[in-house]
Design goal:
The protein is an alpha+beta fold and 243 residues long. The protein contains 8 helices and 6 strands, in the order E-E-H-H-E-H-H-E-H-H-H-E-H-E. The strands form 2 sheets. The chain has a 4-stranded antiparallel sheet, covered by helices on one side. Strands 1-2 form a two-stranded antiparallel sheet. Strand 1 and strand 2 form a beta hairpin. The longest helix has 35 residues.
């Protein structure tokens, strides 16, 4: 009998040559294994995510990651990071390629971070419009620059935290664990890989949304609260794929 990847093969059933009490203990032990949550071996990474500064972390099945082609279409329709680094479209794997990759994984850890950077609602509701608008008051542009400066520093911390989670999973026995970052690459001021070699090849990871992940849908399906447009401070989501 098989359930959740565990079997009864090691359970000794009662016979006239066995102690009934020992047999009952074996059966109870076997049932405990069968009833074990498939997430249990990975729950340690939820705690480690919180230790790394995450606001929330939740294990989900890998096929619970929502991947959509329209995400890349949106990237190519106004995102200032499009084409500016090796980890962003069109240099990143396509949504179809990423869907194929996900099929090789069983579980994922959805990690939510919250930045300390703040912005008023009238600014947060349209960051790009405020940043690029010719008629935008100078004080709003200054506020936005302050926001992005603080947000950028926090994103470096989030990037480091996700790399630590990946390393933790690797040394625990999951060699194909890989982190997807909460936002664009923050390792360099400008990408050196587009004209030569990446300056940080061992730390470079793809942002989840650059692969077509709909983070809004994925978070909501996982039961995690997410606000868009954000109020005051935005949440950023990273994903740890676990084999």
């Amino acid at each position: 009998m098989r359930d959740g990847g565990y079997t009864f093969n090691s359970i000794k059933l009662y016979s006239e040559n066995q102690d009934p009490d020992m047999t009952l203990q074996s059966i109870n032990a076997g049932m405990a294994i069968v009833n074990r949550s498939p997430y249990e071996p990975f729950q340690i990474f939820e705690k480690r995510a919180l230790d790394e500064g995450a606001l929330e972390a939740r294990l989900i099945p890998a096929d619970g990651i929502v991947v959509e082609n329209r995400g890349i279409f949106k990237c190519n329709s106004g995102c200032p990071y499009y084409g500016t680094s090796l980890v962003c479209p069109p240099h990143s794997p396509t949504p179809d390629e990423f869907r194929s990759i996900i099929r090789d994984y069983s579980y994922a850890l959805l990690v939510r971070f919250e930045t300390s950077a703040t912005a008023r609602d009238e600014i947060s509701s349209s960051l790009l419009r405020v940043m690029c608008g010719k008629e935008t008051p100078s004080d709003q542009k200054e506020e936005l620059q302050t926001f992005f400066s603080g947000f950028g520093e926090d994103c470096k911390k989030f990037h480091h935290a996700m790399l630590n989670l990946e390393k933790s999973a690797f040394i625990t026995g999951y060699p194909f664990a890989v982190a997807l970052m909460p936002g664009p690459c923050v390792l360099c001021e400008s990408c050196t890989g587009l004209s030569g070699s990446c300056a940080h090849p061992t730390k470079r990871r793809f942002p989840a949304d650059a692969l077509g992940v709909n983070l809004l849908k994925t978070a909501r399906l996982a039961g995690m609260e997410i606000m868009f447009p954000f109020h005051t401070s935005p949440s950023s989501f990273g994903i740890l794929l676990i084999d």
